[in-house]
Amino acid sequence: MKPVTIRLFVKSFCPWCTEATEWLDAHGIAYETLNVSRDAEARAEMLELTGQTRAPSIDVDGHILADFGADELEVWWKRMDFEPRLP
Which of 15, 20, 30, 45 is most buried by a 10 A CB count? Predict the structure, then answer.
């Protein structure tokens, strides 16, 4: 399935958030970044979507993965069968 909307919720100075952005960039995946450290509305939305305040969190067409590292993102991406499909 090719995602239409990918939104990545991040915090400033978060190493896991940096890993997530680097992983998405390395795989040529376009996404919107929402910094919950600077945007109270984005923080409230992340809390509503995930039930927590930890970042990174990602919303791919309504499918949510919260509080993850790059390895967990890769496993989840494959399990969800999103495009690009990973080996």
Answer: 20
Please report whether residue 7 resides in a domain. no
Tally the domains of the chain.
Answer: 1
Domain with residue 69: its CATH number is 3.40.30.10
Selection from 2, 4, 12 nearest residue 34 by Cα: 12
Please report which residue ranges of 1-87 form alpha helices under DSSP H. Answer: 15-26, 40-50, 70-80
Closest by CA position to 36, among listed 53, 18, 58, 60: 53
Task: List pLDDT tens digits, range 42-77.
Answer: 999 999 999 999 999 999 999 999 999 999 999 999
